[in-house]
Specification:
This protein has about 170 residues and is mainly α. Helix content is about 70%, strand content about 0%. Helix 5 packs antiparallel against helix 6 and helix 6 packs antiparallel against helix 7.
């Protein structure tokens, strides 16, 4: 359910305050989700790790164990998605870097605390999510440059490595 909160907050903010890059933010979310999902699905064919509650003492009930026992523990999907979305969000809204990092840390910690993942599962999920998010932001920047050249658009462009698209107000400062 926290994904719905992240998506809603991010998309509403982008629509209200950064409408010129709203479609690029949607592009990043969609492409990032597919790329991270593909990486994880490939990984699951090579690495299958039982979840901690299968072999270690825990408080997970039998219904929960049966629901998750056939899914690989490695890497953590919740942490991967959280790292992916917070990386994309901070690419467009740099002021969120510290809160996003804290939020991602607590999601990862909760996965270990609840017995759903080993710490290495969470670390791997965070790395995959972060790198996929950075790749997606870079791809969006490169595509926007091409798009602007093809259609001879003068507004927009590159602000720096952390923000995918320059706002109109930023262009006037040059």
């Amino acid at each position: 359910s926290f994904f719905y909160f992240l998506f809603a907050f991010f998309l509403i903010y982008m629509f209200i305050f950064k409408r010129s890059v709203f479609l690029w933010s949607i592009f990043c979310l969609i492409i990032g989700t597919f790329v991270a999902g593909f990486i994880t699905s490939v990984d699951w064919h090579f690495v299958f790790r039982e979840r901690p509650f299968v072999s270690l003492p825990n408080t997970v009930d039998d219904i929960g164990k049966n629901a998750w026992k056939d899914w690989s523990s490695f890497p953590s999907g919740h942490t991967r998605e959280t790292a992916l979305y917070t990386t994309i969000m901070t690419g467009f809204i740099p002021q969120l870097k510290i809160p996003a990092l804290i939020f991602t840390f607590f999601i990862g910690y909760s996965r270990v605390y609840m017995g759903a993942h080993f710490p290495t599962d969470v670390i791997a999920g965070a790395i995959i999510g972060y790198l996929t998010g950075k790749f997606t932001l870079r791809l969006a920047r490169e595509l926007q440059i091409i798009f602007n050249k093809i259609f001879k658009i003068k507004e927009g462009g590159i602000k720096d490595d952390s923000v995918p698209v320059q706002e109109k107000s930023d262009l006037k400062k040059d």
